[in-house]
Amino acid sequence: MAVNIHIAGVQMDNHMVWTDRWKWSPVKEQEYITIYGQVESVLDGMIRRQHGRPISLITQESPYIGWQKISTMTRLKTLADALSGLNSYFDFVYYDILEGKVKFVHTMEGGAVQFSPVVNTADDDTDWCTAQIYLRFMEYYPISPI
């Protein structure tokens, strides 16, 4: 099986859905107040955000989408929790689309890395879990247009 997502040297076991991939724009909107007190807003194509793009990687219990091995998620959670107070950046690769440096978003309720075992499966295999990973791009390098 080809591994398509890498975070901080940890390879994800299966596909995860990037739920907020299309909800971000590299163009920043600016607001200013005119001399008459009106609020004007303008899209400034010259002000491009170079970092800050959110990455929410999500799996689903049913239908099966992106279940991860519990051992993989434990390694990633341990890494994220150990460095939660530091401003550390990690390598990130998302398929053949883009790569860059990310940091874990610890402000999410439940933490930057969350997971729970999949139960009630046909073979009761507790090695698998559903997961949520919250990251933010700090630097990114498009491999192909996004």
| Helical content band | under 10%
Main beta-sheet annotation:
9 strands, antiparallel
Determine the number of helices (DSSP H or I, runs of at least 4 residues): 1
Which parts are unreliable, with pLDDT below 50 for 5 consecutive residues or more?
A: none
Structural class: mainly beta
How many domains make up the coordinates?
1
Mean pLDDT over all positions: 79
Number of strands: 11
- Round the Cα radius of gyration to an integer and report it: 18 Å
Order of helices and strands: EEEEEEEHEEEE
Q: How large a portion of the residues is in β-strands, by DSSP E?
A: 35-45%
Global shape: elongated
Question: How far apart are the termini?
Answer: 24 Å
What does this entry show, briefly?
With 146 residues, the protein is mainly beta. Helices cover 9% and strands 43% of the residues. It contains one helix and eleven strands, in the order βββββββαββββ.
Which secondary structure elements does this structure contain, and how are they paired or packed?
Blueprint: E1 5-7, E2 10-11, E3 17-18, E4 27-33, E5 39-48, E6 54-58, E7 68-69, H1 70-82, E8 90-94, E9 98-104, E10 113-117, E11 128-142
Antiparallel strand pairs: 1-2, 1-8, 3-6, 4-5, 6-11, 7-11, 8-9, 9-11, 10-11
Mind explaining what this structure looks like?
The protein is mostly beta strands and 146 residues long. It has one domain. It is 9% helix and 43% strand. Strands 1, 2, 3, 6, 7, 8, 9, 10 and 11 form a nine-stranded antiparallel beta sheet that branches. The protein is elongated, with a radius of gyration of 18 Å. The two termini are 24 Å apart. The model has no long low-confidence stretch (mean pLDDT 79).
